[in-house]
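If you are new to this repository, start here. Below is one unmodified record pulled from the training split, so you can see the exact layout before writing a loader.
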Amino acid sequence: MPEIRPQRIAQAQEILDEHKRLHGYLEKIEAALSAPPRPEAVGAWLASLASSLQELLPLLRAHFAREDEGGLFEEIEAAWPNAARVCERLRGEHEGLLARFGRLRAETEVAPADEEALQALVARARSLSRDLTRHEEAENELLFRSLDDAVAAQD
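And here is the target side for that same chain:
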């Protein structure tokens, strides 16, 4: 059975650490979504949400690029061919998640026309936040499994 090299174990740990940082941004966004603004405060609320998204987007782009170009998924696939579908699915989600975050960021620049439009924006933001959380959890599970197996193989 092929094994993951020590530098790949370090890379996996760095990705797990990045997931923790990204989760912090998602918590900040969720806090904003959980406190819907009064009508007179919608502009400030949207500006705050836009700022959080603006901070998250470059980090998310860099994180996904690191995962896509770093070779860790390919090494996991080589060591555990049964994980290939999961790796492929996770890599395939990156572009869609980034596009959705970009659209949401753009939406925050335009004040919703009414309460219904604001609630729709909040619903889209929550859905996106949940989807990214699920994505990162699935990657964590894959990385933990591969790290456990790599450590066991070295024993």
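Two things worth knowing about this chain: The chain has five helices and no strands. The mean pLDDT is 86.
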